[in-house]
Design brief:
heterodimer, A: 449 residues, alpha/beta, eleven-stranded mixed β-sheet, ten-stranded mixed β-sheet, 10 helices, 21 strands, 26% helix, 37% strand, B: 250 residues, four-stranded antiparallel β-sheet, 12 strands
Amino acid sequence: MSDTHTFLETLHQHRQSMGPEPTWIAARRQAGAARFEAMGFPTRRDEEWKYTDVRGIAQGNFALAESAEFSQATAATLTLPLEAYRLTFVDGVFSASLSDLEHLPEGLQVLPLSKALETNHEAVGGPLGRLTGVDFSAFAALNTAFMEEGAVIRIAAGCVVEKPIIVQFLSRANDQPTMCHPRVLVEAAGRSEATLIEHYIGEKDAQNFTNVVGEFMLDRGAILQHYKLQEAPLGDYHVASMHVEQNRDSRYTSYSLNLGGALVRNDLISDLNGQGAETNFLGLFFGQDRQHVDNHTKVNHNAPLTFSNENYKGILDDRAHGVFNGKVFVKRDSQKIEGYQSNQNLLLSDRARIDAKPELEIYADDVKCSHGTTTGQLDEEAVFALRTRGIDEATARALLTLAFAGEVLEEVKLDVVSERVELAVAGKLPERFNLTGLVEAASALNELD
Amino acid sequence: MLEVNDLHVTVEGNEILKGLTLTIKKGEVHAIMGPNGAGKSTLSAVIAGKDGYEVTQGTITFEGNDVLEMDIEERAQAGLLLGFQYPVEIPGVKNIYLLKSALNAQRAARGEEEMPAPDFLKLVREKLGYMKMDPSFLQRAVNEGFSGGEKKRNEILQMLVLQPKLAMLDEIDSGLDIDAMKVVADGVNSLRAEERAILIVTHYQRLLDYITPDKVHVLVDGRIVKTGDAELAKELEANGYEGIEEGSAA
């Protein structure tokens, strides 16, 4: 029996238990299933999957979760302590009790996809799948075959959303692993402004598979800060296909912070379709044990006078394996664009590994582009210098590792998020090294000056 | 306080120190002078615990403890601090992080509580003023983009904050103009105290115009060949090391 068959059988069983649905969605579901079956799971012979072996997913037997039951107390410890509008999914199932959608400001809609389909499915039919079609990858096709839940966020023209919007995905430690195929759909109208946080986290022993597809449409002058804080349990599989479309003068910033998951694959694509559009990709990935973290990014400069800036940093310990594949594409006659890309990796152990591949493809002659990648280890002279000041070796290494991550973390505007990443990267610091104390001292000093 | 006895050290198979003996008591300021290649930097590197230096014979004790058995950080926590000839740049690690971590590590080793943030800031600002350094230094990454003079001042600043029992200064005057040297020398002089010792390693006598040592040792070819008072330094300045070498051979 082929790997795809198991998944298609689960789909078949599931659909039989469901009621009728709009014809357009049934048609797309079928197209997704057919495309998935035709493509099959990618293998390492596929150029795009050269360094990532997905057999752990392909050969898994994942059920679909039937409830969103989750202890309120546990959820409270996992949830980011932020004043926010919140949508929560448990193994892909919407949890009304763990969500907070009250008092949404005028001009902002945040609702689960299931509800959007129920109340006005025509409004979803147009944008859903417009950026990430079933041909993008077997995973996108698989997601489409199963799509029924996720987040729909619409921000009206000129609407500035003050509080962040959090879409959190909780993963449970189930007897049988589950899978979910959520969608994230964001339509940001002209000159709107918002901050979105996608947060993946769960119970320590979870072993589930999340296969998310995100589509982000930014109209003229829209601004979107998009955080992805991926702290999935270390047994989880995580595949994310994110596609951004940017109209004139829009500004999109992605903060992709990856700490969790056994096998992680992130695809992030920005299409800069109008003059003045700007995209910023900031990434930090941290792998330990045998974690595998693969980041594929692509910026398409489809219009002149567009700007992109990418900075990805990888930290890999133990036998972790990281992948960075970043592509900057400049379409014919997209003149006066600027595209910068940088990837730096830090290997903390001899058995950690990184495969880095920056790519530039330019079909215009008046452009400013640069790219570069470096991989190294901690500077032993710096470790020594810190130790000669009485700082023990573990703390010295933690300080230097944090310093390496600092360039990306300093850009993170939400302290709650950057502190969580700092603590995860610094590991279990010796008690005498009080990170919070350090940060407080530094800011107190700023106030004195 | 510090006793170095018959120390032999090899680096990549070459013997650099060939039976060096030195005793420093608290309250004293010692200067070790010598020509290039005599082993001056090797001595401070071995005491600080740098890799790549093999002690084949002899002992180093600090307040009765075997220094060679101590971890690098333990030596610093015990009060043995080295000011580097070439301070390392540490991108991303702010000076204030280094100072606070180092001070708290030292206090923890002594079983003391962390210094409260306001006291710490007061202390650091006072020492900054002494070294004529702007508070903005604290927010800059350690030595990153610092001029030669700024790096050396930063080394002394760390000494002033950490208050070692024995401060070792390796070629602290190299690359300094006269004004910077005065600031550095003032900093070092302010460290002079009854319970503290200072060891200055230098090629030139000029720093000793500002910091008067109690004892001057001449290091030639891995051994101390002559010991005297501050006058010896002046003699060396006038006659060079060659006379000493000949003298020692005789």
